[in-house]
Amino acid sequence: MSRAETPFTCNACGSSDVQIFYRVQGVPAHSCLMLSSREEALAFPRGDIELGFCRRCGFIGNVRFDAALNRYSAAYEETQAFSPRFLRLLDEVWDDQIERFGLGPGMTALEIGCGKGEFLVGLCERSGCSGIGLDPGYRPERTHSGAAGRLTFIRDLYGPKYAHLQADYVCCRHTLEHISPVFDFVRLVRATIGERRHVNIYFELPDMERVLQQGAFWDIYYEHCSYFTRGSLARLFRAAGFDVRRLYKVYDDQYLMVEAEPAAAPGPLLPQEDDLESTTALIERFGRQVEDRLSTLADTIARHHAAGQRLAIWGSGSKCVSLISSLGLTRTLGPEHLAIVDINPHKHGRFLAGSGLEIVGPDALGRFRPDVVLIMNSIYTEEIRHELAGRGLEPRLIPL
Ligand SMILES: [Zn+2]
Question: 305 to each of 290, 327, 334, 365, how far by Cα in Å?
Fold first, then answer.
């Protein structure tokens, strides 16, 4: 379909100049829901991905996204807090945010999409502030904190009915990418703040520039319907009535952070917002990049399999579900040749949506004895090497 015929509108700026540049059909609608049987995992609802790039604001969204397939609940298992490397990142973010925004006793932090609450709990424990967290996937039994008396959790999605919740600091981590009407959402956050211009805003989400640069197709999945680069994120916040104060990347440039505050008048643009031209160039070559990545990975796996070797994939989250479905791994590898490993004990014995593969803990690798371990996020390579060595294993590691 040519650009002129596309009927899609950008959810960030309303433009109809949206170019479709990437398609995947029939992918599991969720990848972090814990399914208790293989049958349930195999029968899990599927949806299509068609990424549209807005040539006016740079926003990228799945134009085929259907929110009716969403099943966010307490069975959603997204936490990365079992990884020491991830906990170090949280430490850095807590210290940085508390210092920058002077969070302390008497102040209130509101977290939209707080997951299991780790970030908010840590923020309140360290700073002495009070906290309100919203998330349908929150699990009260997992919060053990001396700050519990200052914490309120609401097991629901954020929406207009929570406009009365007032705070000095509003954060939203790894949530915006799950929301399709992004302008409406950020605008709602802005509207609830009203005239209280001292309120600081902090959003954290995956950075799409890196995904485009690296052809990292496993970072594109159904749960993520919205994708941003620094420029498109800043443009969205500005359009919704915020001034963008800080725009940066962390975690080997995997995560994109924005700090904003309600604007009385438009503030000066930051140099890193100027990325529309470079993003357009990345979009043009993304399809070929992905094909190269896919064929290299498929060749590597086929070669090891032909040699009778066993493969383990370390990390059972969305990236893993996306990789298995893109490579069609379960068509070629049986359970005796493929293991899915995760350090989160809440995932062990559960099944991956789409493929129906069972997730095991690192201890199970002692019996499976993998020859090759595919690491779904290279930032954990040393941590994983250490876990394997502790079990007397020295397989070949392939970090993605
Ligand atoms: Zn747009």
Answer: 22, 14, 11, 17
Cα angle value 114/266/264 (rounded, 5°): 75
Banded pLDDT at 3 (limits 50, 70, 90): very low
Q: Which position has the token pair 């549209």?
A: 52
* Residue with token string 């394997």: 388
- Lowest mean pLDDT, pick from 10-14, 75-79, 160-164, 247-251: 75-79
The model's pTM is 0.93
- How far apart are the CA of 9 and the centre of ligand 1, in A? 8
C-alpha 16 – ligand 1 centre gap (Å): 8
Residues 138, 16: Cα–Cα separation, whole Å: 37
- Distance (Å) from CA 184 to ligand 1 centroid: 13
Interval 57-94: pLDDT, tens: 999 999 999 999 887 666 666 667 678 888 899 999 99
CA–centroid distance, 283 to ligand 1, in Å, is 15
Residue spans of beta strands (DSSP E) within the chain: 18-28, 46-54, 60-62, 108-112, 130-134, 151-154, 169-173, 200-206, 226-227, 242-250, 255-262, 311-314, 338-341, 359-360, 372-375, 396-399
Q: How far is the CA of 160 from the centre of ligand 1 (A)?
A: 24
Grade residue 142 by pLDDT with cuts at 50, 70 and 90: confident
Q: How far is the CA of 56 from the centre of ligand 1 (A)?
A: 5
Helices (H), 271-363: 276-306, 318-327, 329-332
CA of 276 to the centre of ligand 1 (A): 11
Considering only CA atoms, which of 337, 329, 331 is closest in space to residue 368?
337
CA dist 45 and 43 (Å) reads 6
Cβ neighbours of 259 (radius 10 Å):
22
Q: Looking at residue 5, what is its pLDDT?
A: 54
Neighbouring residues of the ion ligand 1, judged by CB less than 5 Å: 10, 12-13, 15, 54, 56-57, 59
Angle at 180 between CA 271 and CA 163, to 5 degrees: 90
pLDDT for 1 beyond 80: no
